[in-house]
Amino acid sequence: MTRVLVVDDQDLVRNGLRMILELGGLEVVGEAADGAEAVTATADLSPDVVLMDLRMPGLDGVEATRRIVAASEARVIALTTFDVDQNVVDVLRAGAVGFLLKDVTSDGLLDAVRRAAAGEPVVAPAVLARMMDHFSHRPPSATRLPPGFADLSDREREVLGLIGAGRSNTEIAEQLVISMATVKTHVRHIFAKLDLRDRAQAVVVARDAGLQG
Fold first, then answer.
1. Residue partners of 197: CB distance under 8 A and separation at least 6
2. Where are the domains of the chain?
3. 39 vs 197, residue with greater confidence
4. Distance between CA 78 and CA 61 in Å, rounded?
5. Which CATH architecture has domain 3-122?
6. Nearest to 10 by CA among 32, 27, 29
7. pTM of the model
8. Which CATH class is domain 134-209?
């Protein structure tokens, strides 16, 4: 059974999430009201998935995510009331596998947690497209690129730019006139060289590098 830690500074939100998760057959192993508690609880309880509120007093969700990802195998899903803002970008860069809006449906929440536990990304292509629209109105950050970025081939950078633009593997294959198997190979190599977990993190790297799909 998938083990979940719920992190939010509001009791009502935590109780609501717990009820949805437990009714859906998932195990809520604990709750935390701030980032520091979340880091400690993750170490103590070893959840598979952490539902992480971003805006909390004290240690915020972004820094808590960074510490959890560095110290455990837990997969973090960010919870936010905003569609796309800088905190979302920062938490994806910190290692979260995706994010959900707090008005997500019960079925959507359960599906996202199950997919995260299975190692799948939880940011839909439509959300990736909105992220790129958000990025287009902001200059690239000065964040240092992953060490492996210099090892990417020209073609791999091209594919990374298309991932950053929200393109699916099928769309990348059509645009570059290459086979689906070749696209998957490029994506696998990109993820390995940059130590990426999923396409959401790839979008952030593409944005930081100024790549345009």
1. 75, 95, 97, 121, 191
2. 3-122, 134-209
3. 39
4. 8
5. 3-Layer(aba) Sandwich (3.40)
6. 32
7. 0.73
8. mainly alpha
